[in-house]
Amino acid sequence: MNEIHQRFRQQGLVRPSDGRILAGVAAGLGRRFGIDPWPARLLFLIALVVLHVSVILAYVVLWILMPAEESAAEELREPSTFPAR
Q1: What are phi and psi of 65, to 5 degrees?
Q2: Which of 3, 46, 47, 72 is least enclosed by beta carbons within 10 angstroms?
Q3: 68 has which bridge partners?
Q4: With contact defined as beta carbons under 8 Å apart, do 21 and 59 qualify?
Q5: pLDDT tens sequence across 72-83
Q6: Beta bridge partners of 15
């Protein structure tokens, strides 16, 4: 799971700590593709109307896979939690 989080971080796909409504997935996707969060949320709702359950499933999967912005910053500050031997 850490490898997936690292790849998402490298690509700029993180859930921001500010501007969240539910989990920050739409805001994170909007930030990554250079659009404001509200149009991203609107596109998400339109896709929900058209595609139904698959969009909810995709949202939950992205919620799990996309690391939160604050945890990304914390991991950069603290590279290892285990003492060196």
Answers
A1: -80, -35
A2: 3
A3: 15
A4: no
A5: 555 556 555 555
A6: 68
